[in-house]
Design goal:
This protein is an alpha/beta fold. It contains three helices and five strands, in the order E-H-E-E-H-E-H-E. It has helices at about 15-20, 60-65, 80-95; strands at about 1-5, 30-35, 50-55, 70-80, 100. The protein has a five-stranded parallel sheet, sandwiched between helices. The radius of gyration is 13 Å and the shape is globular. It starts with a strand and ends in a 7-residue tail after the last strand.
């Protein structure tokens, strides 16, 4: 259905909140949420949300899932700092089609 990436190299701007609380409301499909962050360890699973916590070294685990997003919406919640850079690089190098990048920022940015 769609591949979405929520990213910012800054931590604490609301990436995980947007990924887990806001975006799932917009889709009427099964949703995979991939939290790629060495700090956050969100626990969240429902009938339509499949949640996976990964660190940046395991990014290969999601590449196949997001490459074949026919009936599932994939939300990639990228951690701050180098996590964001590595996620974008891996998705680009593997020609993964991203339908939308969401980059939350703080109002004082």
């Amino acid at each position: 259905m769609a591949n979405l990436v929520v990213c910012n190299t800054k931590g604490g701007v609301g990436k995980s909140f947007i990924s887990t609380q806001i975006l799932p409301l917009a889709f009427d499909t099964e949703i995979n949420i991939f939290e790629i962050d060495n700090i956050n360890k969100t626990k969240l699973n429902t009938k339509i949300l499949n949640f996976k916590n990964l660190n940046i070294n395991n990014i290969d685990e999601i590449l196949l899932d997001v490459s074949f997003a026919d009936t599932v919406t994939n939300i990639i919640d990228s951690g701050g700092g180098d996590d964001t850079k590595a996620v974008i690089k891996a998705l680009s190098e593997n020609d993964v089609e991203i339908n939308l990048f969401i980059i939350p920022i703080l109002k004082d940015f």
